[in-house]
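User: Fold both of these, please.

Assistant: Here is the first one.
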Amino acid sequence: MEEPDQQRRVRVRRYRFTAGREALVLRVPEVGAGVSLPGVLAAKCGAEVTLSDSEELPRCLQSCRRSCLLNGLSHVPVLGLTWGRVSPELLSLPPVDIILGSDIFFDPKDFEDILTTVYFLLEKNPHAQFWTTYQVRSADWSIEALLYKWKLRSIPIPLHSFGADKEHLASSSLPGRHTIEMMIISLAQADST
C-alpha cells in the first residue's frame, strides 16, 4: 500500500538517505530567488527552504510563490529581503546551513549589498556557506576585493566536477556558450597563531 502524500512529505523532511539512521535536514534560504529553481529543487530534496527576493519587487515575490504552488510546495515561506538592508525579515530568519544565490552577481552596483547580506547571515551562522553561480559578463568585474573587505573567502567549484560543463544541460541550451562559474563563500578563518 502506498503511503499518503502528507505522511511521505513529513518523513522525507525528517530523513534523508536513511540507511537506518536519522539524517540532518538542511535549512536553506535562497536570496534573489526570482523563479526559485535552486530553492524549489532543494525543497524537493527535503531541505527546509525560505525563498526571498527584493521587497521592492513584488512581481519577483509573486514569481517565487507561483513556483512553489506549481511544484506542490505551498508550505515554503517567501520573504521580501532587499540586499544590503537589515530588515525585521532578515533578523527573524531561523538558523541556516547553506545560502543559495543563482546568478545574482549580474550588476556591479549590487555586489557589495549582496555580500553585506551574505556576511550578515554568515556571522549569525558561522558554519554556514553561501553557494552561488554566476555568468561571467565582464573580465573587469570581480568580487575579490569585497570578499577581502568583508573577511570572506571563496572556493571555486569546477563545473566539470559534477557534469555541468556542457553547452546543453537537461535539454536546455543554457548555459550555451556563456561562461558560468560556481563558488562557495564562507567566513574567512582567523589564523590560529
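And the second sequence with its predicted structure:
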Amino acid sequence: MATTFTHPKYEIPITLPEGLSEKQVLEFHPFTSWLSTLQASLALQRSNPSHPFHSDPYILRGITIQSYDLFGPRVGFLKLTSNITTSSSSSPEGGKKAEHLPGAVFLRGPSVAMLVILIPDDNLTDGDGSQSEYVEGKKKKKGNEPAKDKEEEERYVLLTVQPRIAAGSLEFVELPAGMVDEAGNFSGTAAREIQEELGLEIPASELVCLSDLAFGVSSTSSRQSSGTTSTTEKEEEICKDGNLPRGVYPSPGACDEYIPIFMHERRVPRDQLGEWTGRLTGLREEGEKITLKLVKMGDLWKEAGRDAKALSAIALWEGLRREGKI
C-alpha cells in the first residue's frame, strides 16, 4: 500500500510505493541533491525579474515515487513523477489555465568519466625534425624553447568494451566510467575506476577535471566535489543556472545523471602500448566483463562515436587546448 509523507524542509507531499520508507528516500543522496537543485531553479523565477517564467512561475506541488531498486539495504535507483504547475488558476473564472511541465525522472546520481591519454616515450621528434624534451611537464625544444606540438597520431586513448544491456549491446565501446560513491568523492572515484578497469594506479591528485576547467574553476581547488565554489562564484552560478553541478548531462530530459570528465596524460614505453589492447579487466564478482581497446586520439570521435562521454571529452579537451588551459 502506498504511503505519503510531507518533506520536512520543502513541505511538499511525497508518495511512496509499498516497501520504501521515508528514511530510505531522505538518505538517498541523488534524491536530496536533485530536489534541492530543482527548488533553487524554481526560486530563480521569483527572484530574477528577467526570468522567462517570472510573471507566472512554476511550483512543485508534489512527488510520486513509482518504483525503486535497492543496492543491499540502500536505495540504488528511483523512478518518480513530479507535479509542477504554474500558479494560474485552472478554473474558468481564474482566466488563464494552469500550465504544467513534464516531470518523469529516473534518479541514479552522478558518475565520472576518465580520458586516459598515453604518449609513447620516444615521441620527442617534432614535425620539423628537431628534438624536444619535457621540462616541468611541458614539452620544450632542446635549448628551452617552446616545441611545436606534434599531431594527435602520437596520442592514444584507452577505451573499454563491455556489455551495456540498457543500450542493447554486449560490446559497447566507451570511455571508462563509474558511479560516484556516497561520499561524493569524484576524483577518488575516477582514480578507483581507472585502477579497476584499466589496471593503472593513478593518484587522485594527478587527475585533471576538464569539466571544472571549462567553467573557469581550477581543477586542483575542487577535486572532492566537482561543484564546490567560493561564495562569490556560487552566487554567480546560481543567478545563471540554479547552481547546476559542473558536468555533462547525457539525458536531461529524463535522468538526473551528470558526468564530470577527468583526464590523465602519461608517457609510456612504445612497446608497452600494445599490452593494453584486448586485456580483460573489471570486477568479475560484480558482473563487470571489460575488454580494453587502444585507439589513436585522432580516431576517438569515430571509434567511440556512440558514447556521449567520449564525444564530450573530445570537445572539452580540444576547446581547453585552444585556450591554453591544458
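The longest helix spans residues 29-47.
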